[in-house]
Design a protein that fits this description.
Layout (H helix, E strand, L loop, with lengths): L46 H33 L2 E7 L5 E7 L1 H32 L4 H6 L1 E5 L8 H15 L5 H4 L10 H6 L1 E5 L1
Antiparallel strand pairs: 1-2, 3-4
Length: about 200
């Protein structure tokens, strides 16, 4: 019974006890059903922006690789030798053919190996390294996009940048470029290589 003569309600709400939800100085309960914005404040890049950046990067990497590879092909052409040998044509008739010497074959194997090494070095410095250093390659800087972590907008590590590049070229680029087109219907606007590395491409 209270001071006015009315009986106390047995289920009346009691004031919050310190330490419980709603008490002064404590945090409100988490709303587990609320949508998560990732990364906060960043607008996702459009398909056109991503395609434009990729196209520019491909042209730049290919051009630089060609410049460094020209001397290799000059060496290959000047160092190639041929020899005459007996052979049989499609009709079974015997004749002589001109074929490269064994030294020439070895030379071209070595030169193609060096070309592959040059292409990998150029790709690393123009495509992979910029991703984990600044999030932007030359092409992405021109079109105004940046590769970041989808959860907090931070830059990717070197390993994730390398994994993203390899997955993009060997998985996303196959089967009619389905991995690249995935962003067109994905809710997070991610490609398949974005999903594998928990990354996304934003506008800058």
């Amino acid at each position: 019974m209270n001071q006015f003569g009315a009986p106390e309600h047995p289920h009346a709400q009691q004031p919050p006890v310190p330490g419980q939800w709603g008490a002064t100085g404590t945090n409100p309960p988490m709303n587990y059903g609320a949508p998560v914005t990732r990364p906060i404040g960043f607008a996702r890049a459009s398909f056109g922006q991503r395609f434009g950046g990729l196209l520019i990067d491909s042209i730049v990497v290919g051009f630089v690789t060609l410049i460094f590879s020209v001397p290799l092909f000059i060496v290959g052409i000047n160092g190639s030798e041929t020899e005459r040998t007996a052979c049989t044509d499609v009709d079974g008739a015997s004749s002589t053919c001109t074929v490269p010497t064994s030294d020439t074959i070895v030379l071209w194997f070595v030169l193609f190996g060096l070309y592959f090494l040059v292409a990998m070095v150029v790709t690393f410095f123009l495509h992979i390294r910029p991703i984990y250093r600044t999030g932007q390659t030359i092409g992405r800087r021109i079109v105004g996009t940046k590769v970041v972590d989808i959860n907090d907008g931070s830059l990717l590590s070197g390993g994730r940048a390398l994994g993203r590049y390899l997955f993009a070229n060997f998985i996303s680029g196959n089967i009619m470029y389905l991995g690249y087109l995935w962003m067109l219907w994905d809710e997070e606007k991610q490609t398949l290589h974005d999903k594998v590395t928990s990354s996304t491409v934003i506008q800058t």
